[in-house]
Amino acid sequence: MANYPFLSESSVYLKKMGPSLEELLHDLAYERTRVSGKERVLEALSEGRINDRSLISDADCLVELLSYIAARILVSCVNDSYLTKRYALAEAKTANLRLQNEDFDFVVNVAMELDLDVKQEDGACKIHFTHYLRNTSQMRSKPWKIANQNLHKGYIILDKTRLARVIQQALQMRIERELPAEVTNEILKDLKGHITEITKIVEERKNTFKAEDFGKLRVTKLPPCIQQLIAKVQAGENLPHSGRFALTAFLHSLGMSPDEILQLFASSPDFDESKTRYQIEHITGKISGTEYTPPECSTMKSYGICFNEDSLCKKEWMTHPLKYYRTKDKGSKKKNKKDTKKPEDKK
Ligand code: SF4
Q1: Structure pTM?
Q2: Which of 27, 152, 253, 297 is a good FRET partner for 79, with 20 to 30 A between their CA atoms?
Q3: Which among 226, 313, 315, 316 is the best mutation to test ligand 1's pocket, defined by most ligand atoms within 8 Å of the CB?
């Protein structure tokens, strides 16, 4: 239960044997638990996973189990979407890593607990294709593609490693759905010190994702759609595939290297360097042989990623985000030329 605190067995146990919310928040005996809960959140933020602790005694196990509850309360109190996503991902990744060392039967049971339609037959685990699709939509590498699966009567066979990865996704989505939970003013007051500390670290982390980090690119000249896509990535939102494609192709057209583009996506909560690098190198032509151009405005609109159109967007001739950038770039170069002219030049 200490290792898999999200299981229903854990909450049944805590209801019977655990402290009340009052005790958890106030009692001196649970100070270690509150601190562990905060550490859990900070580890999720900085390392993207929850560290293993020594679980020698029953007391250690109880602290570990309760630290999960304390961490969820703290994440709810801070109420920041970047933190929530980062935390959900860290809990889910940690579960995946721990499941690698468990029996296959146990892993299948965890999948069932997360409402995945799985069944064991002849020593193999099968998952219904609808549940497979729902939980693998983020996984774009070939081995995960539905076309490459052995589909039999609506079910797909998974080995333990792949099942644990599907569980990771299902758990991440469940935690993201559940948090932030409602918290009272009383709770906010009781945990004020911990909340302030976490909020400060979240803000510091988010500040490192400022658009100024784009070096040669002037953010103010970017079209509103691209600015919005960048802001979403920086705020820790996962972009839809169409958004990732448009952003990568656009930045590549302006001369950003694959490494610089990769750096931008590094702030996504589910950043996977090798997967992201593969996607970028595919779009920029390094491995695909085709250098994709960014979509034009009409396509951006049909994808639902044309945001915050301004007066320049509304010009009849504005058909492409690159046209927008070049128009603004030309405008500011002209202005700079004028501004740098000496008074006698102007005469
Ligand atoms: S009109 Fe074109 S340039 Fe403007 S926000 Fe929409 S897609 Fe971007």
Answers
A1: 0.69
A2: 27
A3: 313
